[in-house]
Design goal:
This protein is α+β, with helices and mostly antiparallel strands. It contains 9 helices and 11 strands.
Amino acid sequence: MTEAVPDFDLLTESWIPCVNPQGGVEEVGVLEVFERAHELQGISDASPLVTCALYRFLEAVLHQSLALNDEDEWAQQWQQGRFDVGLIAAIKEACAGRMNLFDEDHPFYQSGDIPLHEKPKKKLKTVGSLAPEASTATNIAHFDHEGDADHAFCPVCCAKGLVMLPPFATSGGAGIKPSINGVPPVYALPLGETVFQDLLLGYVLPPYRSSIVSASDPGPIWAQDGVIEHKRELTMVGYVQSLTWAARRVRLFPSAGGTCSQCGREDDVLVRDIVFDQGWSRPKGAVTWQDPWAAYRQGEKRGELVVTPLRPREAKALWRDFPALFLVDPEGQTIRPRVLNQLDELIERGALPP
């Protein structure tokens, strides 16, 4: 007899931590974020990685259903002050059936070709692999002394771990490569007074996306066929596709409930074992993907132009990279985040106050 599959649909379940008008933090679902975006004051998780990842995830949701092509169209949307019911209905239709963590065929950010009720014979990994700060295998965290068998995540923590993979997946041993931006860079998130403003300020118009972006964008990972191929190399990449880059081939296996080892909440379903393997990557020697939310340095090496993202460096305070992150370099040695160039243009056109 087949076990009942638990249901956790991110469209309607409460999991995204948002600051409400009273200044408190409450968890809401994807649809509610967009319905209340004009009153919610921001996204705020205990982990800055989760906060950044949630903004990028919501940008992918927005881009899938709202096509803004230039500054004039952007300004019209900004002047509305909120997302209209038509857009919210479009988001609901586009994401319906594709955001359930435990769906048989299209599990959110996972590979549906891995059977849900038949764990593969290949050694599984602990769900702690979804949390960069968790102590797993030989990855020992000084502030976390749990063993692999101790990790048991609730659906909310699993969802947060999955959305962190596209912007923050790092190398993890032989054959496990980092995500599309390589070693995670410093991301610049332009924020306003509400989530509505946050998402529009981070909405990257076509002229400000990577110069090597594919004209044909397959869209976010949940809009595709539900299969993440092992070690697939992709040369051409769409912008929205890049926001949900499938750096890992994952499958969550729900198990008995209890106390979440990550957040401490009680839940009827916990995840302990997962498939966690290499997913997509860019071919060796491919031109550097330039994320519009990241800054870059460029120079010559052996006669060739080399472009590298600005990353956190040990013993170097971030403020020392202020020029690269925020200023236009006339000599071209650094490239600030393209999203800031877009904001300059919007200010120049009068669409935004200085």
